[in-house]
Structure formats: structure tokens, C-alpha cells
UniProtKB/TrEMBL annotation:
It comes from the Eukaryota. This is F-box domain-containing protein. Coiled coil: none annotated. One of its GO terms (biological process) is regulation of phenylpropanoid metabolic process. Gene3D superfamilies: 1.20.1280.50, Kelch-type beta propeller. InterPro entries: F-box-like_dom_sf (IPR036047), F-box_dom (IPR001810), Kelch-typ_b-propeller (IPR015915), Kelch_1 (IPR006652), KMD1-4 (IPR044595). Residues 5-52 form the F-box domain. PANTHER family: F-BOX DOMAIN-CONTAINING PROTEIN (PTHR46407:SF4), OS02G0208700 PROTEIN (PTHR46407).
Length: 340
């Protein structure tokens, strides 16, 4: 690891580094203004992994969530699809926050965009332009230290409703459909540090509206359907093993005909389950995000009903409803865990 020296005058190097490591991620932006050396350390990859190895990172839920509607009492009611932003929930402190809007999309995120993480950063990909509804190739990376977005290298092709997940700092995408609504079997990996995309081997099946899940050292693509059988979801999954560069098909991994979007959970035995079936309170519009020993779950009792936000302790624990500030009570479309 890079040698850190003279971090805090009068303190040994190891103790100074320990002090910085214990800062909550929400303070990093202010701390980086202390001096150039602190800024270099707080933004370095070495420091991130040092914090992770010493247990000082936090697993937060980052959510694609509908934004509050601002309208006058006498004004017209809002129409059309809601606008979405990125909300952050820290289960350690119970705090909620909202990330600055992407400069290219000041009025709301691309519809149905994908959100994942890489080494403590957020990666936002794809979706539909919120005005034209045309699919986009955009990639944006959010740094929690600088609290700013940067433009990443575009996805090589526009794809919608694809699987995404992070493994060893790299972001994997697979499946979905192209601009002509053809289901895809292709897959790629994005290296956030080098800002480069690499093509991977194709899956054995086309998988539209699939879900990405990381299990151990493998990237899984769950369910989905083929072009000629639109809406008829597969019960199989495919697992990509980076060491071999090959896909492994897993039969009977998921219920046939069930949409896996945002609701796939992984049990202790490694088998997949559906969070929508865990409790009647979250049976519709379900979103489950594992945060270490806890899981964030959102959902409704019935179609069109109010969405509740819950925390679950362990995988078989009961849902505990959270008291959420009004500005963070909007519909949760999807999300991911970010270890910051």
C-alpha cells in the first residue's frame, strides 16, 4: 500500500491513518479540504481498501427512488411518469440523503437505468431518456468524497432491462434487449478505473428483463426471456466465472414465469429466493438490497398501494417497518449496496 506520512503533526503515521480511517464517509468531502495530502489519501484506492480491510467502511443502500412532486395547491396536478433520483440510506446511522442530480439529466434520471457500485463509487448506466424515451448508452460514476458525478465511457451498445453487478471492482452487464426489442445474450464488463469496456463470451440463452446477482466469486444472470417468448420468464440462471471466462447454466434456479427484477435474494445455502414471497407487506413492486447482516426491502401489499420500507435482520428475520422522512417515501424502483 502507498506509504502515508505526516498525516497529523505529532502523531505516529499508523495512528494518524487510523484516525482518518474512522471518519464516516459523509465527512470525507470536508476532510479532503484540510490539505492536499488528506485529499490525495481520501480519494485513493489504497485508502479505500485499507478502510475495508480494517472494518471502517459502511454498507449503504443506494436507491433509484421517485422524487417528491412540487406543485402549488391551486396548480395543475402532475402528469406523466414520475422523476427519479438517487437516495442513500445508511443502516448504521439511520440517516437518509439524496445525491446531487446528474448534470446531463437535471430533471430526473434516465427511466429504468441500472445502478451498481465499484470500490465505494456508484455506477449509473443506460435507461431511457426521460424526455424522448429513447434508450441511452450513458455511464456516470459518482464519487462520495467529492460528491460529484463524472462521465464514464458510453456502453458499447444501447441495451435496456439488463442484468448488472459488481465483482472485484469491475461492473458486469448481460442480457436485456436492444433498440429493436430483441432479447440479448451478449455480455460485457466495465473497468471503472481504466474507463474501458471489454466484451465477454455470450450466454447460452437470450435473457430480457433478467436480474444480476453476485454470489461469491461469480456473476449470476437470473431468469429473463427470449425474443420469441416475450414475457415467459425462464426458470434457469447463468453464472459467469471470471477465472475461466465461461458461463455455467444453472437449471431450476428460479420459478418459471416469475419476473426477477429487483427481488432476488440469496439464502445461506446459496439458493435463490424471491423477497416478494417473504411477507405479504412487500408482495408487489418489491425491491430487496442486501447490506451485510441486514437487508433493505421495499414493496406494497397490493398493486397501486402505498409502498412500505423495511429492514430485515438476517435472511429469515421479520420485516421491521422504518419511519422514513416524507421526502424519502417515494417509490423505490431498484437499487444496490455500496460499501463506502
Amino acid at each position: 500500500m502507498t506509504e502515508f506520512t505526516e498525516l497529523i503533526p505529532g502523531l505516529p503515521e499508523e495512528l494518524s491513518l487510523e484516525c482518518l480511517s474512522r471518519l464516516h464517509f459523509s465527512t470525507h468531502q470536508v476532510a479532503s479540504r484540510v490539505c492536499r495530502r488528506w485529499r490525495e489519501i481520501l480519494q485513493s484506492r489504497d485508502f479505500y481498501y485499507h478502510r475495508k480491510q480494517t472494518g471502517h467502511t459502511h454498507k449503504a443502500a443506494c436507491l433509484i427512488q421517485s422524487l417528491p412532486v412540487q406543485n402549488d395547491a391551486d396548480g395543475p396536478k402532475p402528469s406523466g411518469l414520475p422523476a427519479y433520483g438517487v437516495s442513500v440510506f445508511d443502516p448504521v446511522t439511520g440517516n437518509w440523503d439524496r445525491i446531487n442530480r446528474v448534470p446531463k439529466y437535471p430533471d430526473g434520471l434516465p427511466l429504468f437505468c441500472q445502478l451498481t457500485s465499484s470500490e465505494g463509487k456508484l455506477v449509473l448506466m443506460g435507461g431511457w431518456d426521460p424526455v424522448s424515451y429513447e434508450p441511452v448508452k450513458d455511464v456516470f460514476v459518482y464519487d462520495f468524497t467529492t460528491r460529484s458525478w463524472r462521465k464514464g465511457k458510453d456502453m458499447p451498445e444501447a441495451r435496456s432491462f439488463f442484468a448488472a453487478g459488481e465483482l472485484d471492482g469491475r461492473v458486469y452487464v448481460a442480457g436485456g434487449h436492444d433498440e429493436s426489442k430483441n432479447a440479448l445474450s451478449s455480455a460485457r464488463v466495465y473497468d471503472v478505473r481504466s474507463d474501458e469496456w471489454t466484451e465477454l463470451a455470450r450466454m447460452s440463452l437470450e435473457r430480457d428483463e433478467c436480474q444480476g446477482v453476485v454470489i461469491g466469486s461469480e456473476f449470476w444472470v437470473v431468469g429473463g426471456y427470449r425474443t420469441e417468448s416475450q414475457g415467459s420468464f425462464e426458470g434457469s440462471a447463468e453464472s459467469y466465472v471470471p477465472e475461466t471466462g465461461e458461463w455455467r447454466q444453472v437449471e431450476d434456479a428460479w420459478r418459471v414465469g416469475q419476473c426477477p427484477s429487483s427481488c432476488v435474494g440469496v439464502a445461506k445455502d446459496g439458493k435463490l429466493f424471491c423477497w416478494a414471497e417473504s411477507d405479504s407487506a412487500v408482495r408487489v413492486g418489491t425491491c430487496g438490497i442486501t447490506l451485510g447482516a441486514r437487508t433493505f426491502v421495499a414493496g406494497s401489499t397490493y398493486q397501486g398501494g402505498p409502498q412500505g420500507l423495511f429492514l430485515v435482520e438476517g435472511q429469515n428475520g421479520k420485516l421491521t417497518r422504518m419511519d422514513v422522512p416524507d421526502e424519502f417515501s417515494g417509490f423505490v424502483q431498484s437499487g444496490c449496496c455500496v460499501e463506502i
